[in-house]
Amino acid sequence: MRKLVLTVDDSAAIREMLSYVLKSAGHKVIEAEDGMDGLQKALSRQVDLVITDQSMPKMDGITLVKALRALPQYKKVPILLLTTESSDSMKDEGRTAGATGWLVKPFDPTKLIEVVDKVTGGR
Amino acid sequence: MRKPPSRPTPGAGPGAVDLTRFLPMFFQETEEHLASMEGHLLRLDPRSPDAEALHSIFRAAHSVKGNSTIFGAKPLADVMHQIESILDQMRKEELRPTSDVISLLLETCDAVREELRRLKDSGDTDQTALQPLHERLERLTRADTDHKSRPDPSIEPAAGRSERFRVEVHLPPGQGIATLPLAELYAELGALGRIEDVQASDGAAGTLLLLFLLTSERHDTVRAKLVSLLGTNTVRVEHHETALQPAPDGDAIRPAHTGDTAFGLFSDERSALGSLGSSSSSIMRTTVFDSTTAGRRAVDHDSSPSMLGRRATDRMFFDRSSIRVDVDKVDRLLNLAGELVIAQSILAEAAQRIGAANDAGLRDSVAYVARQTRELQEAVMGIRLLPLDYLFSRLPRLVRDLAQKLAKDVELVTQGGDTELDKEMIEKLADPLMHLVRNSLDHGIESPQARDAAGKRSRGTVQIRASHQGGGILVEVQDDGAGFDRDRILRTAERRRLAVHPDMTDEQVWQLAFAPGFSTADAVSDVSGRGVGMDVVNRNIRALGGSVEVRSKRGQGTTIALRLPLTLAILDGMSVEIGGESFILPLSFIAEALVPQAGQVKSITGGPRVVQVRDSYVPLLDLQALLHIPEASGENGIAIVVEADGRQAALGVDRLLGQQQVVIKSLEANYRHVPGIAGATVLGSGRVALILDVSALLRAGLAPIKGMEELAPEAVER
Amino acid sequence: MHNSTLSSRAGATAVTPTREYLAFRLGDEVYAIDILKVQEIRVFEAVTKLPGAPDYIKGVINLRGLIAPVLDLRVKFGFKEAAYGPFTVVVVLYVHDRLVAVVADAVIDVVALTEDEIKPPPEFATSVNVEYVMGLGASGDHMLILLDIEKLVSSQELGLFDAEATA
């Protein structure tokens, strides 16, 4: 099922990669360059899924997750964290902030689509 | 043409997407990050390094590290990792950014750039190329007491000290967060500083939204902004004193891996909502778990995040309010706009032919189209404008390296970097400008000892000033060095058999330095590069439609002034008829026009003719000879007095055909440079008109030697 | 490839590779150039003179916004006459990334020739320097002088381009 995904990452290369993979799987993508941009975009348009990097200018990913969770319309929307390592501290942080899951970079595109489908209840 | 990368080395698991398509982006981003790092490094003050700059450098290195890992450039990632550590130590004041340290970091940036280039060209990294640097960086991060220092409490932190505020937004029961103007609220807070944390909760007492803001703004400012947005009853702003709290495993250098999983779900999708107050312990703890520096992103907390204070460097390299557009697209747009200008003038001409003089409606419409076209064109040209800072940003590095190499003490001052120029112009200005700066350092500024002996400050100054002047741009390169050596230039000129005579004014002597192949450096200086001299600079600037002026005083210094038109593409010109052919004369050179009466044109015994202009005589150029126009005599027509390079002359034309804005087309794209001609344009009739190169005409026409030789097609300066 | 017109010989086999050439008249002679280099053919219209240019460069014209030089090979090759009549055309070529317009008295045809149909150029002097002649062909009654237009146009002799450009 086609979903509207918001990707938030300050690296244009990563955004490109995510877009490419997601669009190939039939999803629609909105991109944001940093946490604040992502938040504004999420506010102006309801998305089905948010995939966000952590370290970004203006607002980092964890804060973005928290800000989104504070919004009624995003309490239940799946949010995935893009991380460079799958460590305990990351998991703690992510879990506390309210993220739905994480994905380690570089990501396996098949896995990405699987996770996307899983969390959005698609297929 | 760029070769595509020959093979993708990006490492990823099985089924990985072919990452090569994203490589160009990776290269571009990394270049930008490196440039940004370099810019910040050059500005660091060893005594009190700016926290924001350190943060920017750290983040840039971090980004490059991340991307490099993904794209399989591990050596780059490793080196960036070390830079991260070094920056972190600097931020914690355990390491001072001394000149040596900065040099090492700059060297690293260079080496990484080199590796990047290698990767781009051959699809391969040299695993060992960065090894020596890696070791030097390693040594630096270990205890090396020369560079390390204890944090000095007496040193005041950089101005714009940031503080934390706790913003509480209360909403009565029944009024959810959705009733808040959230987009504006976040935008406002984002503009004030950096939002570090967000907490929200719903309860019987209502809804509470907690936002933690790090900002260098004052309390009243923050409060005022929020109150005006939300109302006094809704929001409270308080200082928030919290020490940094280390992450749970804050002491681990490397966060523990929990095995293999490349993805996963948090088992319970618990939201971050908790009851009021219980989450305060988690505030301020922001862990960067992918940084290996003790798991703390303390860097963020200390930086002054006010986006209003962002430096030009950041804005230049990461201007988030702009979009990236392919240059080709902009050029195409520009061409179309130019074509529209031509089409519109064809239209105007056609309208006139069919008698628009009698039809006010048609006349008005044509005029309206003309106006709109002009506006469109200006708007499109505006897209291509870039600030000169684009060029100036390269200079600090150049000056630093060169000064070190030459053992001179030089300070670079730039002014007017926000002056904007057409992109193409800026690109073409790069080489001449850098050459002039090199010249100043090499030949201008003396050694500290020599300067001392001369009673000057041992530190020399090179100033670059840019400003708008009379419809164009003026860029001056000034040094307080030794100035041009008149005698030396004259001697060299004589040796090169250039015409000299003892009465030449200083300006005329300096102009000799512009002769092809002229160089007073007896030993070809490798600093200024193969003895490439002022003549190349001059030629390059002239090719842009500009001019070069030299002012110099022995012992005091030299100023080279470059005058450039705003754009390469459009020209305000006067259409003139000479000997039955029409030409365009750029308005910027025209001083005045007059119709000489009988007897006002005189000749100096069998030689050049002059025309009387009020109380003086201005040389009348022999266009017949200069432009090989058989019927140009200039006696019975109009004399147009033009000025270029500080000199005046008169051009005899038969008729003035009218003023018009023309789109400059290149002759050299399909032909070659024609001496005396600056370019061409297409008139409303569809015919080509040539644009006169006034500078060249003056030079040839006024030269003490036979002017014609300079413009003979065979004697083209190449 | 071009949908072309008449081939020079009936019964030319489709198997042997042919190249197509644009045949045009200069004075009494017929020249031919590789059609792939030809961008378009235009009526000869007013040309803007270039100061100090050699006599075989008539000037420049406007080609949809681009400025291109007009070359009169009749003058260059030293023909007795170089008239401009109602059939005079310019053949616009795209060579070495540049546009060059060449004056022709008339355009004759597009001719397809196989390699064996091209004879080597004669040793004796022709109007045009033999180093620019790729060979001789035939089309009907005409002898076609196949010009190496690339070499000619970029030659120092013609001086159309700056020395660096032809590197």
Key traits:
heterotrimer, A: 123 residues, alpha/beta, Rossmann fold, 5 strands, 44% helix, globular, C: 167 residues, five-stranded mixed sheet, 10 strands
Straight-line distance between termini of chain B: 25 Å
Q: What's the helix-strand series of chain A?
A: EHEHEHEHEH
Q: Briefly, what CATH class of chain A?
A: Alpha Beta
SS-based structural class of chain B?
A: alpha+beta
Oligomer: heterotrimer
- Work out the largest interface and the residue count of each chain: A-B, 68 and 73 residues
Number of helices of chain A: 5
CATH topology of chain A: Rossmann fold
Q: Order of strands in the sheet with the most strands of chain B?
A: 7-9-10-12-11
Strand portion of chain A, in percent? 15-25%
What does this structure look like?
The complex is a heterotrimer of chains A (123), B (718) and C (167). Chain A is α/β, with parallel strands linked by helices and 123 residues long. Chain A has a five-stranded parallel β-sheet with strand order 2-1-3-4-5, with helices on both faces. The longest helix of chain A has 13 residues, at 12-24. The N and C termini of chain A lie close together (6 Å). Helices cover 44% and strands 19% of the residues of chain A. Chain A has helices at residues 12-24, 35-44, 61-69, 88-97, 109-120, and strands spanning 4-8, 28-32, 49-52, 79-83, 101-104. In chain A, α2 (35-44) runs parallel beside α3. Chain A is globular and about 30 Å long. Chain A contains five helices and five strands, in the order βαβαβαβαβα. In chain B, the strands form six sheets. Chain B has a five-stranded mixed β-sheet with strand order 7-9-10-12-11. With 718 residues, chain B is an alpha+beta fold. Chain B is built from 21 helices and 23 strands. Helices cover 37% and strands 21% of the residues of chain B. By secondary structure, chain C is mainly beta. Helix content of chain C is 5%, strand content 42%. Chain C has two helices and ten strands, in the order βββββαβββββα. In chain C, the strands form two sheets. Chain C has a five-stranded mixed β-sheet with strand order 8-1-2-10-9. The model of chain C is unreliable at 1-13 (pLDDT under 50).
